[in-house]
Write a structure and sequence with these properties.
- By secondary structure, the protein is an all-alpha fold.
- The protein has helices at about 1-20, 30-40, 50-60.
């Protein structure tokens, strides 16, 4: 993803140098991915203990 973002930035800079009038700032893919991840309905866990603690909280009504 970062290669694509870097390419978009370079292309944007080239248009600025060339004096293009229609030159919107590119929206980077990494920003889009972060937005989607922040909107996710799912939880992830790094360890089984984290999963079990969260499971217990849900079962208790929390």
């Amino acid at each position: 993803m970062t290669i694509c973002d870097e390419l978009q930035i370079v292309m944007h800079q080239q248009r600025v140098i060339a004096g293009s009038k229609h030159n919107p700032k590119p929206r980077l893919m990494t920003e889009r991915i972060r937005e989607v991840q922040n909107q996710s309905k799912y939880e992830s866990f790094d360890t089984p203990d984290e999963f079990n603690r969260r499971r217990e909280q849900i079962l208790k009504g929390g």
